[in-house]
Write a structure and sequence with these properties.
With about 130 residues, the protein is mostly helical. It has 3 helices and no strands.
Length: about 130
Amino acid sequence: MSAAFVVGVLVAAGVFLLLRPGLLRVVLGFVLLGHAVNVVLLSAGGLGRRTAALEEVGPDTADPLPQAFVLTAIVITFGITIHLLGLLRRGAGGPASGADPMDDDNDDDGDAESDGDGTGGAGRPGTTGRRR
């Protein structure tokens, strides 16, 4: 199986997953695209050269630069994956999810906005002192 075919399959599957609804599919699509980039970088170094870099220096010696690029790409892909999984765990947080990050009415940390007179801290009964 050639490297171009593997890259084509990984990119096609990654783009397919990116275009599907669902955050987990988006994360998996980015992972597949990251693997496709790694295969491209490794194939850029020459797949036919298999001589170890430390035994002898010659035209058949493996180029260490693409291998360093692949290691860097692996770290970047891992960081993006962890970030996206963190966003997935936190939730979408958009208007469709029903969660309003500015809604503090359910605070249980003891710092209520009321000053004890039943006005909600705004001086008028039934108000909370914020605009909606």
